[in-house]
TrEMBL record:
Annotated GO MF terms: 4-alpha-glucanotransferase activity
The protein, known as: 4-alpha-glucanotransferase
Presence of the UniProt keyword Transferase in the record: yes
A Pfam entry, by short name: Glyco_hydro_77
Family named by the database record: Belongs to the disproportionating enzyme family.
Organism (species): Cellvibrio japonicus (strain Ueda107) (Pseudomonas fluorescens subsp. cellulosa)
EC numbers, comma separated: 2.4.1.25
Transferase among keywords: yes
Length: 511
């Protein structure tokens, strides 16, 4: 299979981007917050970040999955594979659009409970507004959105309303009719919880409207949004609840087999993710309908999409559902070729990148290359003393996406600090004993690669140490909460980045 047209446009010239999740942006809703740091939103700081990127000559903004999260905040364990994270909604944007009055939002502490209360206040004002003459056109747009997205919004809105009704308890504990997704029980619940269902619909409408506004702004600056699809979905999600027959579950709805990985670079005992595995036979029988619907939603959000844990399309690590020990798993073949054939038949220009890190076999790479999917190479993995290491720059290829590190790695400065003297010397020797200080030594190594796309985490551009990493795989403490402030950004950083991109021929024509 040949490369898609979309991929050709991205990889036909050298370019560079930045990795930063929107939650890591400074919070722009300061006038509603008193004394507590909050996560970033799709508000004015997101637009400021795009301006920064344009000034720096960066043309790709890569981020993590943008779905609603559980209390652990992991974007890889989302409540929905389709929905947007309501925590990213900007109240300022809603006020500027005239959808809600400023006095309708009273938020004194931006924890998730108070954010939810503030969104309820905003929702009440929004529904009052669209009942007025002035809100008629917005009402029409809102109802059109709900109709167009009904293929996922109907289930997500009811699922979230039910989770709130049952105090966030897993759907497997709900009354039998609701647990089994019985249509009669669902209809009764939808009527009983109509205001709560409408609130979720409002939040999704607000998210998608704000997202499209931001995406349009990015496109005017010749900046593309690079998304991330987790290969698996959370057990406690609208997807598993609504599509139980497509997952390996027992009669009580509990997973018979869960996802993870065997021991690897990140963990000596492997990782137990807990996501239920797909029933691939069922999915193949309906031509992967669920996957095609998932891609449809993501293509409305992103210009380029990374498939996280791509190797799971060739074979997946199956851990028995009754154990927490990831080492008890086994590799089981997956129908990756059939799935990707269906995806590209439905979306011929599908712009995918394969996350091919970890335990990667010849079969996995053959599947990736069969569909001409760019892969990932990470410089922090390169210096193990093996000259054949694929992450070393002399082994890179044009279609590779080159990273100094990823959201799962330490910052490059933190990584370098953890190296022994021999490893540091090996890195310096490889770089011709360059006098560049870290992390710019690694940044410049990524930018100089033959790989046509290079992505640098924002923490590396800001020269931050390991205290600022986004995630530490295998742990659940203090992950996904890092944010930056513009005061931490050197005033000359954009100019420095642009100069380096010019040196390595990675500037793309921008307005």
């Amino acid at each position: 299979m040949s490369s898609t047209q979309a991929q050709v446009s991205f990889f036909s010239q050298r370019r560079a981007g930045v990795l930063l999740h929107p939650t890591s942006l400074p919070c722009s809703e300061s006038r509603y917050l008193e004394g507590t740091t909050a996560f970033g939103t799709l508000g004015k700081e997101a637009y400021r970040f795009i301006d920064f990127m344009a000034e720096a000559g960066l043309s790709v903004w890569q981020m993590l999955p943008t779905g609603p999260t559980h209390q652990d905040l992991s974007p890889y364990q989302s409540i929905s594979a389709h929905a947007g994270n309501p925590d990213l909604i900007s109240f300022d944007w809603l006020i500027e659009q005239g959808w809600i009055p400023a006095e309708s939002v009273h938020l004194f502490s931006p924890d998730r409970t108070n954010l939810a209360i503030a969104r309820q206040q905003a929702g009440a004002s929004f529904f009052a507004f669209i009942q007025t003459e002035y809100g008629a056109s917005v009402a029409q747009t809102y109802h059109a959105f709900c109709a167009a997205q009904a293929y996922w919004l109907d289930d997500v809105s009811l699922f979230c309303a039910l989770r709130n009704h049952f105090q966030q308890q897993s759907w497997t504990t709900w009354p039998e009719g609701l647990r089994q997704h019985d249509q009669q029980a669902l209809s009764a619940a939808r009527q009983e919880l109509a205001p709560e269902v409408a609130q979720v619909c409002f939040e999704q409408f607000a998210f998608f409207q704000q997202w499209q506004s931001l995406r349009n702004y990015a496109q005017k600056k010749s900046i593309y949004l690079f998304g991330d699809i987790p290969i698996f979905v959370a057990h406690d999600s609208a997807d598993v609840w609504a599509e139980q027959g497509s997952f390996l579950l027992d009669e009580a709805g509990q997973p018979m087999s869960v996802a993870g990985v065997p021991p690897d670079y990140f963990s000596e005992t492997g990782q137990h993710w807990g996501n239920p595995h797909y029933d691939w036979d069922v999915m193949r029988a309906d031509n992967f309908r669920w996957w095609l619907a998932r891609l449809k939603t993501q293509l409305e959000l992103f210009d380029l999409i990374r498939i996280d844990h791509f190797r799971g399309f060739e074979a997946y690590w199956s851990i028995p559902g009754d154990t927490q020990d990831a080492r008890q798993g086994e590799w089981i073949k997956a129908p990756g070729e059939a799935l990707l054939n269906a995806c590209f038949a439905a979306y011929p220009d599908l712009p995918l990148v394969a996350e091919n890190l970890g335990v990667i076999t010849d079969e996995v790479e053959a599947l990736r290359k069969q569909f001409a999917l760019p892969g990932m190479l990470v410089l922090q993995f390169a210096f193990d003393g093996n000259p054949a290491n694929p992450h070393l720059p002399h082994n890179h290829s044009l279609a590779d996406v080159i990273y100094s590190g990823t959201h799962d790695n330490d910052t490059s400065l933190g990584w370098y600090a953890s190296l022994n003297d021999f490893s540091r010397q090996q890195l310096r020797s490889y770089c011709f004993h360059s006098s560049d200080a870290m992390p710019w030594l690694l940044i410049n190594l990524a930018l100089s690669s033959v790989g046509r796309m290079a992505i640098i985490p924002m923490q590396d551009f800001m020269e931050l140490d390991g205290r600022h990493r986004m995630n530490m795989p295998g742990t659940t403490d203090k992950n996904w909460v890092w944010t930056f402030d513009w005061d931490q950004v050197d005033p000359g950083l954009a100019t420095r980045i642009r100069q380096q991109l010019a040196t390595y021929h990675r500037l793309v024509n921008q307005v």
